[in-house]
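Let's do one together. I've listed all components of the complex below, 448 residues spread over four lines.
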Amino acid sequence: MKYLIAEDELDLQQSIVTYLQRDGNICEVASDFGEASEKAAIYDYDVIILDINLVTGSGLDVLKTLKKEKKRAGVIIISANNSLTDKLEGLDLGADDYITKPFHLAELNSRINAVLRRGKYGGDEIMEFNEIKIDTKSRTAYIDGKAMALTRKEYDLLVFFISNKGRVLSKEIIAEHLWGDDSDLLDNFDFIYVHINNLRKKLTAEGAKYIKTAYGSGYKFIED
Amino acid sequence: MKYLIAEDELDLQQSIVTYLQRDGNICEVASDFGEASEKAAIYDYDVIILDINLVTGSGLDVLKTLKKEKKRAGVIIISANNSLTDKLEGLDLGADDYITKPFHLAELNSRINAVLRRGKYGGDEIMEFNEIKIDTKSRTAYIDGKAMALTRKEYDLLVFFISNKGRVLSKEIIAEHLWGDDSDLLDNFDFIYVHINNLRKKLTAEGAKYIKTAYGSGYKFIED
DNA sequence: ATTTCGTCTTTAGAATATATTTAGAATCAA
DNA sequence: TTGATTCTAAATATATTCTAAAGACGAAAT
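Okay, and this is what the predicted structure of the assembly comes out as:
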C-alpha cells in the first residue's frame, strides 16, 4: 500500500512511517499543507493520514484537492484535541475516519485497516446526506453540525434510509432489517408508522424533509 | 537486548531464539504460562514475545503480572487467529503490538524494532483527555493535576473509555475487555452499572461529566 | 364530483426495556 | 484478620417501543 503522511510533528511522522514501512508499505511524507496538497493531487495514495492542525494552510484545501482531482484515497484525519467542533470539522471535510492525539500506533493501524477494508465493502464510518452527517463510531447523527437526539430505532432507521437513499423501502423490508425475524411483530407493521413519524418530526424540526411516502409501497429518503 | 519468548510450539520457539541470538541478543524461553509469569515478574526484559494461545493458564495473567510489577517490557502478542476482537483485546491488555500466525521471522523482527523504537512517541506512557491525564506506568489517573483514587476496575474502565473516546462501547464489549472470557459473569451485565456509577461519581465530583449513556447501545466517553 | 376503501398520519399512553442507585454479601489482597 | 474492592440483588427511575384508536389522505370506481 502507498501512504502519504502529512504531519509536521516530525517524531510522530517518523514513528508512523517506520511503523507502516515495517509491513512493507510505501510511505511519503509532507510537513506542510502546500506539500501535502501538491503530492495528493499528483500521486495516487491508498491512504492519506492528515493532521488538520498543521501550522500552515487549511486542511480543507487538501481535501478539496482530492475531491477535485477525483482521488479515491482513504483519508484519516489526525486532530489534536477531541472537542466536538473538531470532530464535526472532521466529518465535514469528508474524511473516512479520524483519530485524536495522543493515540497508539497500533490503534492507527487498525483504523487504516478498517478504511482499506471499507474500500471493498463500502461500510462507511462516516455517512453523509446533504446537511446530515452520521458518525457511526459514536452512533451520532448530526444535522447542520448539531447532534440529533435519536433513539436507537430512529438512528437505525436513519442509517438504513441513508444507506439506501433514493430507493423505495417497503415496510416489510424495513421491519426485516430493523427487527430481524422477530415474528411476533411481523404480522402488522403499524409500529413502523410511529417510528417514521418520530424520525420525521426530528428531521423536519431542523428543516429536513427527506422521508417521502411512496403510497402503497413504502418510503424513500430523497431530496425534496 | 534481552528477550523472553513464551511459546509452547517448540520448533517455533527455537526458531525465534536462534534468529534473535544471531544478532547478539539474550533470550530466555518459557513454555507455559506459569513459567512465563514467574520469569516476567522476576526479570527485566526489553521485549516479551507472548503466545496468548498457550495451553495452560490465561494470557491475562502474564500481562497483569507485568502491570503489577511495573515492568516496562514491550510485549508482542502472538495470536493464532486475526479476528478484530482478538486484536483489540490484545491492545487493551497492554500489549504493544501483535502478530498473527503464521509469520515470517523478519516480520517479527521489524515489529520488535518498532516496539523498541517506540518508547518515544505514543509509547503507552501518558494518555490524555482534556483535564484528565493517565500515567499508565504508575496506573494513576490525574484530574486537574490531582490524583484520583480509583480502584483497579475503575482505572481499567477509564483507560478503556479514553482509548476508545467517542466510540459507543456496549456493555458486552466493556465486559469482554475488562473481564475477558470470565463466562460466569457474562450472562448478565448488571455489575457494569455499578462500576460505571462509581467511576461517574468520582469523575463528576471533579466536574467531569464525560461518560454519556447511549440508551440501548452502551456508553461513550465524550465532551458534553 | 362523490363515495368508498385501503393506506397513512398522528397522538396518547400502556407495556416493556433499560439504566441508576443503594445497601450489603462475597471475595480478594495486604 | 482486616479493610478495600468487587459483585449481587432489589428498588427506583427513566427512556423507548409498541398498541390502539381516531382522523386524514390518496386512488380507484361509480
